[in-house]
């Protein structure tokens, strides 16, 4: 047992740090060790409990109702609101789409209207549930266009989606106008506030200019908000709120069509550990409203300082003035964004590369946490050094032959040989490597530059093949 725990610690040493404010994607750090401890201890205490049957573990039911109540209070919800704790933002999105579809069994080929900046989880939901995504280009400000969104709604539309904020650019869509257009047509309007829902209300309270997006907006029928982001709870908890219980009803699943127990589920999962829920409840109770306001002040101070620092670097620019805690940075022609990401990693900072899309250039994405504030000066110093190094090394060049090969690839007919050829060109396998033998590089700029040449469909096919190659059994 001790050996296993020692081995876990050894393996974890190669992972990105989850504390310290230097990982600006995937994790959200309050910077408060006591809060982290409380969350871990609560998760451990409830790790063996099962949320499948709320009558068997009434403490889980009580915690879920209290967590949903805290979310309802924060999001201006009416007394009629109901909600469910899920495993994360993607599950909340999946359930929002499934519920909208199942509420309209009279529509044989349902559609949902999405701005092109909506989270990819909606495309996953479309794939799973057979709801056609109708993609609407955003305006020059990178926000959903109300007129275009309204024009895209028709008799087959079961759901309209807006973001608060969009992940890629950190801006809030014009929810008021779009929700009104949906309500006029009798269509549900879901606000994806998975990443901003627990921080934007405090931003408004602190006097920042935040567009309206909560249940205070007429026509908003559901909202998703993650607790493992800016509620700083352990992974993985999210809340899906519906304005009324009638709107939520199609979300539930029951089956007595077998000789075992009658299955009754409120989420995609049946068996689910009570640990994440307990961790979220404990953290939320410990921080309280005043604690979250303090953390919001810290994270927005960090965002403002980073924006100001980026403004002093001529090679960088903020893509759009952010409404929340997310920054997307673009580079000029002298500076390769993928190289900047590599150089930041070499200096102990993880920032996320975003590929080019629909004519928009590749960007550098930062999800800022409260724990980043004490380290902003170090971050900006590292960013200046990374930019200088990227300028000095010049743009990443993809071999013309490799570029031509990528251009000719058909994502629907991608073969193992095609994929191996790209892995070899990227330096991810050697010429004599066994199938599945991947060597992950320390620097990803060249790999990202190759992916950036691919169409979105080809990029998807390549990354699916890559994931398949990564996830092979380790046998002893």
Share of residues in strands: 5-15%
Radius of gyration: 23 Å
Helix content: 40-55%
Number of strands: 13
**What is the multimeric organization of the chains shown?**
single chain
Q: Count of DSSP helices? A: 16
Low-confidence stretches: none
**What is the distance, rounded to the nearest whole angstrom, between the alpha carbons of the first and last residues?**
18 Å
Mean pLDDT: 94
| Major pleated sheet | 7 strands, mixed
Helix/strand structural class = alpha/beta
Shape: globular
Please, could you describe this protein's structure?
The longest helix has 37 residues, at 275-311. Helices cover 42% and strands 13% of the residues. The protein is α/β, with parallel strands linked by helices and 476 residues long. The radius of gyration is 23 Å and the shape is globular. Helix 2 packs antiparallel against helix 10 (275-311) and helix 11 (337-346) runs antiparallel to helix 15. It has a seven-stranded mixed β-sheet, sandwiched between helices. Strands 10-11-13-12 form a four-stranded antiparallel β-sheet, covered by helices on one side.
């Amino acid at each position: 047992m001790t050996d296993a725990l020692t081995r876990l610690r050894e393996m974890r040493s190669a992972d990105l740090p989850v504390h310290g404010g230097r990982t600006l994607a995937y994790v959200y750090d309050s910077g408060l060790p006591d809060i982290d401890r409380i969350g871990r201890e609560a998760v451990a205490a409830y790790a063996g409990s099962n949320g499948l049957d709320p009558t068997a573990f009434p403490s889980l039911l009580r915690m879920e109702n209290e967590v949903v109540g805290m979310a309802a209070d924060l999001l201006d919800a009416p007394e009629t609101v109901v909600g469910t704790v899920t495993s994360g933002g993607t599950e909340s999105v999946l359930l929002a789409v499934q519920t909208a579809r199942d509420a309209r069994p009279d529509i044989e080929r349902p559609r949902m209207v999405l701005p092109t900046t909506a989270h990819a989880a909606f495309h996953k939901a479309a794939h799973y549930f057979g709801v056609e995504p109708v993609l609407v280009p955003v305006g020059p400000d990178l926000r959903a266009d109300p007129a275009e969104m309204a024009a895209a709604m028709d008799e087959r539309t079961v759901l309209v989606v807006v973001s608060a904020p969009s992940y890629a650019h950190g801006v809030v869509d014009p929810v008021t106008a779009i929700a009104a257009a949906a309500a006029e047509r009798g269509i549900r309007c879901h606000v994806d506030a998975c990443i901003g829902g627990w921080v934007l209300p405090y931003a408004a309270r602190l006097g920042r200019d935040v567009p309206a997006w909560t249940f205070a907006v007429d026509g908003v029928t559901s909202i998703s908000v993650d607790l493992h982001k800016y509620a700083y709870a352990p992974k993985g908890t999210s809340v899906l709120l519906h304005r009324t219980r009638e709107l939520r009803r199609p979300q539930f699943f029951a089956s007595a069509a077998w000789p075992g127990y009658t299955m009754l589920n409120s989420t995609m999962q049946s068996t689910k550990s009570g640990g994440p829920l307990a961790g979220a409840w404990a953290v939320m109770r410990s921080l309280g409203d005043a604690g979250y306001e303090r953390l919001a002040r810290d994270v927005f101070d960090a965002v403002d300082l980073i924006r100001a620092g980026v403004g002093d670097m001529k090679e960088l620019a903020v893509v759009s003035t952010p409404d929340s805690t997310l920054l997307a940075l673009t580079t000029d022609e002298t500076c390769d964004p993928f190289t900047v990401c590599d150089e930041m990693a070499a200096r102990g900072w993880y920032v996320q590369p975003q590929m080019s899309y629909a004519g928009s250039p590749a960007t550098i994405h930062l999800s800022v946490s409260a724990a980043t504030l004490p380290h902003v000066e170090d971050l900006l110093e590292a960013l200046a050094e990374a930019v200088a190094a990227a300028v000095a090394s010049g743009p990443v060049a993809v071999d013309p032959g490799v570029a031509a090969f990528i251009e000719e690839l058909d994502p629907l007919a991608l073969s193992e040989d095609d994929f191996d050829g790209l892995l070899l060109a990227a330096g991810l396998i050697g010429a004599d490597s066994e199938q599945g033998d991947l060597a992950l590089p320390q620097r990803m700029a060249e790999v990202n530059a190759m992916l950036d040449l691919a169409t979105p469909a080809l990029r998807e096919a390549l990354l699916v093949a890559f994931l398949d190659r990564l996830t092979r059994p380790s046998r002893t």
